[in-house]
Design brief:
The chain has one domain. It is mainly α. Helix 4 packs parallel to helix 11 and helix 6 packs antiparallel against helix 8. 71% of the residues lie in helices and 0% in strands. The protein starts with 11 loop residues before the first helix and ends with a helix. It is globular and about 55 Å long.
């Protein structure tokens, strides 16, 4: 077996999605150098790591736990980073202004951005259900087994799988860190939003950790064929549940800290303005 470090591969649908992201960012900002552009390029790097790197190879060739890591990268890292990239790089932690963060969007994209922000501001439950629901759907044994068997070449299921996780991450993060500051969720509501998501991930983690190893036929077959090295099928399931529980909740907890920081900053600024008026 070749060293894992050389197991990079070309995924055509990943290349298409990466091109769509680059084109979309160009449509929004043109050739202007945005202060938050580093969020976009970091998101693109994370996306390629999740879809073309040795991590994807390991996820395809035997380890469900590696598959869980890839899911976390797409849903909880890449998606939020793309949302952060719509801000000006300085105001995504603040909600002092009511207008779009400086430079975030060209005139032709403004109506679309405003429409998405306004809808999700009034329907945050849709964003929550999209992010959590898609995560749960892709762990239904029938769907996961089917997706593992065709995640090569120009498979339409491959596009749906990767694209839906990416969209779910963007939609889930938008009410919390979207570009229109006036449409962002109140920090205290955001903590409840993230807390319930953490509970959902914890529940999934528990179900995976205690599920029978054969529930995902693709990985059970890999174990029987000797593809797995270092972990038994049962240990791999337990590791998958632990990954779904701990790292996911750490991401949500980090989001809660950001929201608390934002709330304290807003409260302090409001107090200073009151004192200055008096």
């Amino acid at each position: 077996m070749r060293s894992l470090i050389v197991q990079w591969h070309f995924d055509p649908w990943a290349a298409v999605l990466a091109a769509v992201m680059i084109y979309g960012y160009y449509v929004l900002f043109g050739l202007r150098l945005q202060r938050a552009a580093y969020f976009f390029w970091l998101a693109l790097l994370v996306f390629l790591l999740a879809t073309c790197s040795p991590l994807h190879y390991v996820a395809m060739q035997g380890y469900l736990s590696a598959h869980m890591v890839a899911h976390i990268l797409l849903l909880l890292i890449c998606g939020p980073l793309l949302v952060f990239s719509l801000s000006d790089g300085e105001t995504w932690l603040s909600s002092e202004k009511v207008e779009l963060a400086e430079g975030a969007g060209s005139n032709r994209a403004m109506p679309w951005l405003r429409g998405v922000s306004a809808y999700l501001a009034g329907h945050s439950w849709v964003a929550w259900a999209t992010g959590i629901g898609i995560m749960w759907v892709w762990h239904i044994p029938f769907l996961l087994n089917a997706s593992r068997g065709v995640m090569h070449g120009w498979s339409l299921l491959s596009l749906i799988h990767t694209g839906s996780l990416l969209v779910a991450g963007i939609v889930f993060s938008w009410p919390l860190f979207g570009p229109f500051l006036k449409d962002r969720m109140h920090p205290m509501s955001g903590i409840l939003y993230l807390g319930t998501a953490c509970i959902s991930c914890s529940l999934m983690g528990l179900l995976l950790a205690f599920a029978p190893p054969g529930i995902y036929g693709h990985y059970a077959g890999m174990a029987m064929s000797g593809t797995l090295r270092g972990l038994t099928a049962k240990q791999d399931m337990q590791a998958s549940g632990l990954i779904m529980w701990v790292p996911c909740c750490l991401v949500y907890l980090t989001g809660c800290f950001v929201l608390v920081f934002r709330w304290l900053k807003e409260t302090g600024q409001g107090h200073r303005r009151t004192v200055n008026v008096q």
